Each structure stands twice: as structure tokens, then as C-alpha cells.
Amino acid sequence: MKLSRLFISLSIIICGSFPAPAKIIHIPRDYATIQDGIKAAADRDTVLVAPGIYSGQIKFETKNIFFASWFLTTGDARYISETILDGADSTVIKVSHLVGPATTIMGFTIRNGRDGINPRGKFRVLYNHFYNCGDGLDYERGSGGLCRYNLIEKNKGEGLDLDNDVNVIIEDNIIRNNGEDGIEIQLQDYTGPRLPYVIRRNLIYGNGQNGIQLVGHPGPSNRVFYIERNVIYDNGFVGLGCTSNGNTVENYEGASLLERIYLINNTFAGNNYGMTGGDNVIALNNLFVGNKMIAMKNVDGNSITAYSNFWLNGDDFESSNRDKPTILHTPPLLDENYNLTPSSGCIDRGTAFFAWFDETVLNLPPESFAGSAPDIGAFEINLADPLVDLNLSSETMPGVIKLNWSADNAANIRGFEIHRSKGGIQFAKSAFVENAGGAATSSAQQYLDADLLPGTYYYRLKQIDSDGRISLSKVLEVELPAPANYGLLPNYPNPFKGKTSIEYHLPAAGFVVIKIYNFLGQEIRTLVDGERPAGFHHRLIWDGRDAAGRKVVSGAYFYELTAGNFRAVRRLMVLP
Hints:
The protein has 4 helices and 52 strands. The chain is mostly beta strands. The chain has a 12-stranded parallel beta sheet with strand order 1-2-5-8-11-14-17-20-23-26-29-32. A 12-stranded parallel beta sheet has the order 3-6-9-12-15-18-21-24-27-30-33-35. It has an 11-stranded parallel beta sheet with strand order 4-7-10-13-16-19-22-25-28-31-34. About 40% of the residues are buried.
């Protein structure tokens, strides 16, 4: 976040909640301990904490108090990491049900607690770093409020754990690498006014179990979920999983939860499963890519999925309702941050209006999206970098793609980043090519991308000028075929002393065994014994040692490749 935007946000938070005059209590200048400062504070006072490590439990029992590090007054993010609240295995902060809803906790590192914060009342938690706690935040009955701009990572249990009736907005957080779920929500009996849960614009990734888990219970539950514009990726079990009967252990059942879930403009990528369960889900403008098993399982009952893109998942649907004419299967071509790139098939392919069973679910004004229709996925495309025509083309050779392009005004170009995507999910930088044109007005450029497996590759170039300006090329799609036949090539060098390289080709993926035998046909060593993908130029090194790690004697040896019904043998020589 830019500092100007940050200070505007902080000003709104402070002025909107704590009209002047309000006293500022400085810790440790005015009071030696944080708890003493909180007890001394009047309603709507600010308790401002200097950098340092503060151990022991902190309790908020009444009043509206703004509790913050120097980050509040400076906007300097280093004060978040330098102002540490250490629980020493006790819950770091407890928030009573009697606190005022304007109570705010801002700008701390909160660590080593049984829980980071255990609230029973509504409050706001902003710009904090939670790590190495049991749960980062453990919301109890009657709690909630606003959870925004926090980094919640590497906690032993959940990043956020919500039990019973919690009225909360969870937005603009990074929730990553927690031992269990990123967010776990228990849906115990609740019959009061319809209770909203808002989860939006978060990055939720790398968690050991689910990105988000909704845990159903047998009794009534009057709740509604708004899950919007999150990127939920690389979680161990499910991006968004539903279980039943209080079961917090993900079993991929895809429970038939009856709570209404609005799932709008999210990106689910690289999870084991994308979404499992839900009998009352409206899923629109979502992107499901590279989820290993199934993108959507048991999203049925009164649920519907529409205007969404599914690409390179293990399977796209199992027992799930969808509007087939609006479901896409096209390469999303994301950048490294899951933004759409200019050639993505997700641009302008969502919907601004949707009605379901006489309910108008979406009715977006044109100014809320960039093009003729909303994009699919978590982010609307940002065309900040202009496109440049570089006449990008390709040639293919076994295991190699050669890129050719030309650039005008070459004298002003520093070089080109090569961005590659295998399969079309996500681009990553693979190389940088210095400008070969020197002072020429135009120049021809090339790059060899070698040791590639067969498949479909997508390339784009990022042209970087000498003054730092950036332009992007159009995307080039290249199909690299598999070998037509199996092949076992001569080793090199041969004869050899020390090490030699063995290369083989596979027209199809399969189980491969490569063994070394001596002149008498006795097995010396197994070099490969397992599954290998199709492709040219599979290479391995033999160091001239047997299975026990001993140097073999000089002389003639044989190496054998077995793959399916194919078998080949070649001879090699070991020098003394």
C-alpha cells in the first residue's frame, strides 16, 4: 500500500472513531506496563506503545481504546516488526464482551501465544503480524468486528478460528502457511437475525489443511457468507471445504450445508480440491485452475455455478450444478501474482447481472469493471504496461523451443525478460536476454529454451528500456511434440574416467528402469526405477560406482533401459 493511501486510511480510522480531544498514553514513558496503561485509559483514549518486546497477557475488559504501536503515528511498517507482544504460551490478548466496538488493536507482532487474540466482543484488528500461536485469532460467541490488513502466518492451528455466532468482516489479509486451516468457521446452532460473514480480497495460501473450512452442525443456522475476490491457492486439502456434524477433520465429503454462500470473483489454484460441498451456493465469475483432484465436488442441491473458467484441474466437476453454456475452459494466462495478463481468456468473460430463483444476485454498474463485462477471477486486469509488437515467433526442435523476435529503436532497449507458462495457468520469468542490437535502430533477437518436456507452452516478452519503461509483447502459443519413439543414446564421454552422462527419450509417460551390468551380466547398480514423464533429453549421471558406493574396476559394462515393452542395451567403457 502506498503511504499516501495508508495515511488516509489511518486518518479515517482515528478521526472517525475517536473524535478529539482524546488522551494519548505512552508505554513505557507514562506507565511501565501495557496493562497499567489500559487500566488508566479513559473511554476513547489511545495507548501508544514504543518498540520493544512485551511479555505477558493483555486484557481489554471495558471501554473503547485505541491500542497501537508507533506505526499508528508514522505509517512506518518497521514498527510492526519491532513492537512485539509475546504470550509465552498464554493467550496474548483477551477481549471481553464488554469492550466498545471502536476498540482497535493496530501495528504489532503478536507471537508465541496459546492464541494470538481471543475475543468475546466486537473490535477491530488492523495491520498486525500473527505467528507461532495456537490459533492466530480465536473468535468466540458474540465476537466479531473488522479484521483487515493483517499477516497471519505459521500458527500451529488455524489462522482464524470462528465459533458460534461471530459477526465479522475479514478482508485484505494475508493468511498463509498455518498448520491447519487458514480460516475455520464452526456453524453451531444459531436462530437470531441473519448473521453475515464477509471474506474478501484476502490471499489464503500454503495452509496445511483447508484455505477456508465451514464446519456444519445438526441444529438450525441462520447465516450467510459473502466470499469475494480472494486468491485461495496451494492449500493442502481444499480451497473451500464443507464438512458436517462438527467434523473438523477434512474428509472431502462435500457436506450439504444449507447456509447461503455467495462465491463471487475468486481464484482457486493448485489446491488438492477446489471446493467441496454446499447446497445453497451461488458461484459466479470464479476461476478454478490446477486443482489436483476435483475443482468442484458436491456443490449441488439449490446451488449454481456460472460464468466461471475451469482449466487443467484433475476433474472440473463431480455431482455439481453448473450453467454449461457459461462455463469456460480456456487458458487463464496469469502472472506470478495471479493477475490476468492481456491475452487471458478470462478478460470480459464474467457477468455483471445474474438472477437466481427470483433473487437478483448481481447487478453491477459499468464503472465497477474495466471492460465490456467483469473479468473472471479475483482481479480485474490492469493494463498499466503498454503492448509492443515484437514479431515474436518460434521454431521447435527435440526438447527445444527457439524464440525469434525483432525490436525497433533497439538502441534504447536494455533487454528482454522471457516469461513462460507450461499449460497456460501462470507465467513465470525464465530468463533475461540482453539487447543484442547495440546502437542499431532495429535488431533481431533470439533465445533457445532447452530441456523441455512435451506439451503446450505460452511465451510473452517484457521489454525493458534503458529508462526503465516496460512494454509487453503479445502471447505466443507453441506446441512441443513428444518423441515418436523410445530411444537410448550413447553415453558421453565414452570411454570415461570419473563420470558419464546417459540420455534417453520417452514417447509416453511410464515406469522406467535403467541398470548397469558388468561384462558377466551381473547387476552392478540401478540408476532409475520409477515413473518418468514423456520427453526428449532425459539425462542422468553415472559416477562409476556400484550400489555400495565402491568404484568399479576398469573395463566394459552395459547399461539397459526398460520402459513398457521397450528394451535397449548399450556398451560403455570405464578407464582405469
